[in-house]
Amino acid sequence: MSQRKENIRNFSIIAHIDHGKSTLADRIIEMTGLISKRDMSAQILDSMDLEKERGITIKSQAVRMTYHRPNGEEYIFNLIDTPGHVDFTYEVSRSLAACDGAVLVVDAAQGIEAQTLANVYLALEGDLEILPVINKIDLPSARPQHVKDEIEDVIGIEASHAPCISAKNGINIEEVLEKIVDYLPPPEGDDNKPLQALIFDSKYDQYKGVIVYIRVKEGTISLNQIIKMMNTDKDYQINEIGYMKPGGFIQSKKLVAGEVGYFTASIKNVAFTRVGDTITDALNPAKKPLAGYKKVTPMVYCGIFPADGARYNDLRDALEKLKLNDASLLFEPESSIALGFGFRCGFLGLLHMEIIQERLEREFDLDLVTTAPSVIYKITKNDGTIVLIDNPTNMPKPTEIKSMAEPITKSAVIVPQEFMGNIMELCQERRGAYVDMVYLDDVRVQLNYEIPLNEIIYDFFDALKSKSKGYASLDYEIKGYETAKLVKLDVLLNGDIIDALSFVVHESKAYARGRRLVEKLKETIPRHQFEIPVQACIGGKIIARETVRAFRKDVTSKCYGGDISRKKKLLQKQKEGKKRMRQLGSVEVPQEAFMSVLKLDT
Amino acid sequence: MNKLRIYIHIPFCQSKCQYCDFISYDNKDYLIDSYIDALIREIEFSNTLLKNKEITSIFLGGGTPTYLPAKYIRKILNKLTFTSKAEVSIEINPETVNKEKLFEYKKMGINRLSFGVQSLDNKLLRLMGRIHDKQTAINNIKLANELGFENISADLIFGYPLQTLEMYKKTLDEILTLPLKHLSCYSLSVEKNTTLHSMINKKILPTPNEQLDRQMYEITESKLLKYGFLQYELSNYAIKGYESKHNIGYWKQDEYLSFGLGAHSYYDQKRFHNTYDLPTYICTIKQNQLPHEEIENITLKEQEKEFIMLRLRLNEGFSLDTFKEKFSNSFRAKYELEIKELIEKNLIQITSNQVRLTTKGKDFSNQVFLMFF
After folding, report:
1. Residues of A with Cβ-Cβ distance to B214 under 8 angstroms
2. Do the beta carbons of residue A57 and residue A351 sit within 8 Å?
């Protein structure tokens, strides 16, 4: 029989970037006494450096806390953190599926912003109760009543009872805790039913194997139980189970319906513990898995090469380490004439790609050269065979190609009406096909387009942001493949094709992109002692050309007043610039040049 | 007794030139008195460093040292002990001297004059923001010679926006008729934070043409050679025996101690410089402290880098033996690959034990030095 677990609250905090999500999480953790303020480094939930710096959460985690009400009652709070970006929409939806309610943090000065909405809609879709909280009321520009009205008008949820707080200064946090108890519902479930537990995250630990984070929906999961992943069909025996506190684990014997916790079972690889999968008892399985599971597949590919070719093995080791914790990262060896040996890597989206690149550079101290991102093209050859290409270098000759198809997305852009014109123009430019538009309220409109993924990976987010003053938000899913007139554009430097600079582009945009690219390369390639022609070509036909003029002198003619140090510093700077160059034949190309293909429209 | 060279910086000018990024001010005359006081106290504080040293050259540079009344220069030189064998130079803006001043200089022991002529084309001089004209420059050089100054040098700039090859040739032809023993001909570097830089950025003036610049460099050497001036450094030419001892000191890593705002020293295997901020300079010294900053220990490894970079500026380059003696290492063995590449690219040559820049190497000397950094 299903019971209400009256003393448990499972919730997430959702917010637009910088509205104070992590700070509020810190205060809640402090107030429930898990950790003293003094011992706490700011923003506990975001444990990766990168997350701290970007102020976004990449991997979700959960914390269990005990809240003692002033009236003496005791409550268990499970705070489940969510990743905050479009690439991770699916992960966000699974984290939210592990909750029964959500705390919506809105900045009292800024009001509702684009990113807030996407997550609020996900929460509403998951039938979560939402408790609005107005943060930063200590700011002089705070307008709490106005923001409350806005929440009611735009999102359509009751906001009159919303606590007005300052997470930073610890004002009114108590009220938030009380309202979590009063307004967010307790979980429901039957401890005796066949087990159904949702995986909302997993993490590789070198001692314990994979740590799987779960929310038990029905039944009981206990130590030594034989369990099964319903979608990947793998079975394991549980060898540790319990729940999480900040920075550690507390072991227990079992978790019952409504509880949030973790287990380990000597699992070697996060690929077997997919987010969204359902865990059941292998010997007494549930009839069907929980709804909502999706196998996540990489949509964006790019080449990653070590700047210093000798560090190829280091790069491989680093990718393998990251892969332990990131089932969605794919990589396989690749070689390029221009860049030597490296890896072709697959990512969920552009942010995922950027994060992996940054982690490789920071955590593993690697200098990388990356190539332009690509999607997977379906190519039908003249003889009828179909090939899938995620790397322009492997493209068959134009004469062998009968037709090409590219992935198309169903994209939804939510934007304030004042920027609607700009965004429609942008979608049109990016070969988007208009589907329809939905007025969400007096202010916001949702534009639905079908846009080729190949256009979205070219700087689309940046363009969206700049054309909407940061307000537009995007969500997309792959609809399928459609035939298109695509061509491969090559770049020649000093007469030689630079394979790492090739990319696939729609015929109608090839000329403009080619022109822009050679202009950019002309700016990024330093002058040499000889002239360097920079050409863009399609199937051997030159469509654009620029020349990097030769430099005729590189001399410091005056060493003034014995200032030798200055001259040395200048040479040192020049030397460091040179180190970051790639030698392609007789031409030295800076690493930025390989990235310049990414930003051709801005 | 160990030898020592002295540099003295005077950071004041009547008017700042368009291309100038040196430390000098044309709007702080109210600080001149306190500056000279500070400078003199700085020399006094440094007495221990000057003890047991023979001063072999003194260079008064700027800014414009001759912008100041001669009595200030006298006050400074009075603080230093040197013989008539020492080379004592002063930088001169032709507009700021006259017979009396030059005569004073002679009396106080200055024996080398370096005239900042830059060009003998009046239009170009105005474009550069120089305060003098062609005739003043010519007259004052002649006057100095008549007053008994024998060792006179002039500075020229080439590769300036709008400067034509003809203009430059004419300047060279005319300047070579004057009683000079030394010429410094500098290829223009457009430095950030100069008026010139911003004018080029705003496209008010064209970007300097490097091809033309190199043509001017070539004709400098050939024209000067006809008059007996031999190139001895990337930008310097002299009648034999009149090379600037002071500047050669920089290129041969001699020790030098410098006084004044932002002045750089190399002493006891350390490089350091004075603060670049004028009020700070004056205040620090008032508080009986030396305004030294960024003291860098020059290790043997660093000395070697500097050796290559500085010696190769000289036409004579350096000998493999000297290198071995100083750094107990064979230059050829240590830099085998670098040498091979530089010789293949025709940037350096090694003949009869001497390493030198080639003609092409002089155009790309930074590319050469980089190989050893």
Report:
1. 552-553
2. no
Q: Which positions ≥6 away from B164 have C-beta within 8 Å? A: none
> Do B306 and A553 lie within an 8 Å CB cutoff?
no
Element housing A424 (H / E): helix A420-429
Q: What are the CA-CA distances from residue A371 to residues A102, A303, A338, A454, A587 (Å)?
A: 40, 5, 11, 14, 18
| Residue B367 sits at the chain A interface (C-beta within 8 Å) | yes
| Residue in B236, B272, B363 to test binding to A, most A beta-carbons within 10 Å | B363
Please check whether residue B156 touches A, CB under 8 A: no
For residue B366, give the nearest of A556, A561, A565 by CB distance: A556
CB of B370 within 8 Å of a chain A CB? The answer is yes
Q: ipTM of this predicted complex?
A: 0.90
Chain A residues touching residue B301 (CB < 8 angstroms): none
Residue A602 makes CB contacts below 8 A (sequence gap 6+) with A459, A462, A463, A466
- CB atoms B22 and A578 under 8 Å: no
Minimal Cβ distance to B235: which of A558, A561, A575: A558
Per-residue burial over B135-149, b if 16 or more Cβ lie within 10 Å, else e, is ebbbebbebbbeeeb
Phi-psi region of A55 (alpha: psi -120 to 50; beta: other; left: phi over 0): left
Residue A20 near residue A135 (C-beta atoms within 8 A): yes
Instruction: Note the pLDDT tens digit of each residue in A163-173.
Output: 999 998 989 99
CATH code, B2-250: 3.20.20.70
3-state secondary structure of A179: helix
Domain B300-370: assigned CATH number = 1.10.10.920
User: A561 CA to chain B: closest CA distance, Å?
Assistant: 7
Residue A15 forms beta bridges with which residues?
A105
Task: Name chain A contacts of B217, Cβ cutoff 8 Å.
Answer: 553
- Taking the C-alpha atoms of residue A94 and residue A82, their distance in angstroms, rounded to an integer, is 9
Task: Compute the mean pLDDT over every residue in chain B, rounded to the nearest whole number.
Answer: 96
Q: Return d(Cα A285, Cα A194) in angstroms, integer.
A: 6
CB contact under 8 A, B310 and A564: yes
A228-250 confidence digits (pLDDT tens): 999 888 899 999 999 987 767 88
Chain B environment of A553 (Cβ under 8 Å): 187, 210, 213-214, 217, 363-364
Judged by CB atoms closer than 8 Å, whether chains meet at B309 and A571 is answered as yes
Q: Are A5 and A187 in contact (CB under 8 A)?
A: yes
C-alpha A533, offset from chain centre: 38
Assign A46 a pLDDT band (cuts: 50, 70, 90).
very low
Q: A568 to chain B: nearest residue by CA?
A: B306
| Chain A residues in contact with B234 (beta carbon < 8 A) | 555, 557
Counting DSSP H helices and E strands in chain A, the numbers are 14, 34
Delimit the domains of chain B by residue range. Answer: 2-250, 300-370
Reported pTM = 0.65
Map tokens 């909405």 to a residue: A117
